[in-house]
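Could you show me just one protein sequence together with its fold in token form as a worked example?
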Amino acid sequence: MIDVITIGNDILKEKAASVPEIDENIENLIKQMTEILEKKSGVGLAAPQIAEKKRIFITKIPGDILRVFINPEIIQTSQELQSYEEGCLSIPGVWANVIRPASISIQAWDISGKVFRIDTDGVLARVIQHEFDHLNGVLFTDRLNDKQRERILKIYDRKSKTK
């Protein structure tokens, strides 16, 4: 099975490419991503996290359905900001409070290629923004100040060396 790549891999810093059409390869990729997300007990996974530079991510937060976002665009964000603790499958074992818009509107294709829009807040809005960042080569640590980022990366380095 494909595994999640971790911080230090250059793909995580690159912008993902749009998906021109949904074919069998894209469907299989989404199936693999879903299996990985379940295996890792995550709430979101972006294609670049498994070394696929495609504009796709999935979310599965507790109490919600599995959601597939292909070629997503965040079309609106609230002015209200919220701080919330985030972690990442590509930086396992560390968490930090990240400030993001409290609510968003996002438009994307679903697995059948149909365009949909979601207006959301709370945990789903948070996870969507986190995964959307992955499509643009941004990690949650990039949203921290220098001191916080340095502290988090030191913790990650220590934890990853003891494995």
Q: What stands out?
A: Strands lie at 44-46, 56-59, 67-77, 81-88, 91-101, 103-109, 115-121.
